[in-house]
Amino acid sequence: MKDIDWHAGFVSAMKLELRKYEDILTFDEEHYLANRAQKLDLLIIRNTGKDVIDNPIGRIFSRHNILEYKGIGDVLTYGKLYKTLAYTSLYLYEQHKDDECSARDYTMSFVRYEYPKKLFIQLKRDGIVCEEITPGIYAVSGLPFRTQIIVSGRLPKGTAIWLKSLTTHGTVEDVEYITTETVGLNEKHKDEADNIMNIFTAANGAVMRKIKKEGLPVCQAVNELFADEIKELRIINDAQAEQIVQKDAQIEQDAKEILRLKSILLSHNISFDELK
Q1: Which domain holds residue 68?
Q2: What pTM, to 2 d.p., does this model score?
């Protein structure tokens, strides 16, 4: 799983989950702070505060929104939470040199597939309240910035399809969801969906093999959905195969020519060694 780019998948997932509001949101992937020594996983700038974001994930969003993602195998610890808090504070300092800003202009979101039980225990110990305001989304009270922790594996069934697809616990039903949701996307969004599907396939090989082995209908749906990509791949493979055939034919022709030359030399009692 080390070769899977979970972060890239997360960025694609967030763009798809919030695509309805892409006109007012700007995505800044891996935003570096001024000294270039630290970076934010994902920074989402909200360009206007007038539009209501009717989405559980983005409902908290203010002007500057810092998101920290922990992929499969990466733990959301107490220390990492406070590291993001420090980075957010530094980002605030860099954005506003004067005392004109408000902490309300900044939010922090932490995303992880599995429930961070130990972290919640530690936060409760420190008097920081974590309230589940909707299944899988926890509002954190007691930090300088409005904060939420999103446990994608606990989000309601049939919602946040893209974010929940970043898992090693995928099912046939998940493939059906992805396939269904991809229909109707424009080319830009389809590229993001392709990225997530590639990650899902790499992380859930057993499920994909089951679909292929059992000939489940979803397999045909996936083939139809990505027909253009499959066709293009076949064209490339056919072209490569044709090149191989041509090379083999050339090799065979060269071999015949060498044998012909050898025959001529032998008829004159001349060997290759004498020509060196």
Answers
A1: 6-170
A2: 0.78
